[in-house]
Amino acid sequence: MFKAILIEKDAEAYRARLTDLDEAQLPEGDVTVRVAYSTLNYKDGLAISGGSPVVRQFPMVPGIDLAGTVEASSNPRYKIGDRVLLNGWGVGEGHWGGLAQKAKLRAEWLIPLPEALSERQAMAIGTAGYTAMLCLLALERQGVTPERGEVLVTGANGGVGSFAIALLARKNYSVIAATGRPAEADYLKRLGATTIIDRNELSNPGRALAKERWAAAIDSVGSHTLANVCAGTRADGVVAACGLAQGMDFPATVAPFILRGVSLIGINSVTRPYKERVEAWGRLCTDLDLSILDEITHEIGLSEAIPVAHELLEGRVRGRVVVDVNR
């Protein structure tokens, strides 16, 4: 038996609860992992609350991230005792995920946990830090260097935003952080932001083209914010879009793209090829100051995951939430 968060839905209710499950109930997979740590991401909050149709089948164990040790494997890629991690691949949506003490998974979804990281550190980084690194790699491939000018980060107090600021600052970029929580300005500056702006400057309907302000941007918000980010990007600038906290819509015009040559790059962090995942995690080991993880994250036990998920959706959680599934 093992403990897990289980989401169930029937004609009467949608509910999430902490419960005991039998290993025989685990879904199909060729690698069984004894989970050490998982996380709470925005998508996990939606899954637990039922506020959006994230979960595609029931019952479901949420959790799009996990790190742990291989307990059983019928795939030659992994053996008992290997440390592994997983981000995405529909886990926690269509396949039981990481908010449990055990998970049964397909080997191709996993990568080896880098030797430089503990399971807890890997989950302190999680999908948020991994996505931020994919965004940075995309900007680099488009030739964005610190000399090109400032880089805007929206959703700065969230997980992706926090890591994006830290990674960019470590590479000597000048970072503008857009936040709806001005009281957190000191936190953002400790991460490396040089300028703080109010998200209200970007979150309402704006002009097709605005004053050129930043050379590049990492946006995890979407909707009007992303449209305004593109409108304020300098000629030949680059915007990496990786989230939809404000909404899935994109109420923009083609003006920034055809009049300024702005490039909008979509970041898919869910189903990246194995080589790209290994590259991104390798860069995180070298480019991220691991000492900031305590600043960015706080830890909870599995029993706290459901109430904290609701706090996350209400915007009352700063940075990352690491879940110790064994307490």
Molecular structure report:
It comes from Stutzerimonas stutzeri (Pseudomonas stutzeri). This is Acrylyl-CoA reductase (NADPH). GO terms for molecular function: acryloyl-CoA reductase (NADPH) activity. With 327 residues, the protein is an alpha/beta fold. It has 2 domains: 2-116 and 292-324, Medium-chain alcohol dehydrogenases, catalytic domain (Quinone Oxidoreductase, Chain A, domain 1, Alpha-Beta Complex); 127-266, NAD(P)-binding Rossmann-like Domain (Rossmann fold, 3-Layer(aba) Sandwich). The chain is built from 10 helices and 15 strands. It has helices spanning 42-49, 119-141, 159-170, 185-191, 200-203, 223-231, 255-259, 274-287, 293-296, 305-313, and strands at residues 2-9, 14-21, 31-40, 65-73, 83-87, 102-105, 111-112, 151-153, 175-179, 195-198, 214-219, 233-241, 263-266, 297-301, 320-324. Strands 3, 4, 5, 6, 7, 14 and 15 form a 7-stranded mixed sheet that branches. Strands 10-9-8-11-12-13 form a 6-stranded parallel sheet, sandwiched between helices. Helix 4 (185-191) links the parallel strand 9 and strand 10. The longest helix is centred in the middle third of the chain and has 23 residues, at 119-141. The radius of gyration is 20 Å and the shape is globular. It starts with a strand and ends with a strand. The model has no long low-confidence stretch (mean pLDDT 95).
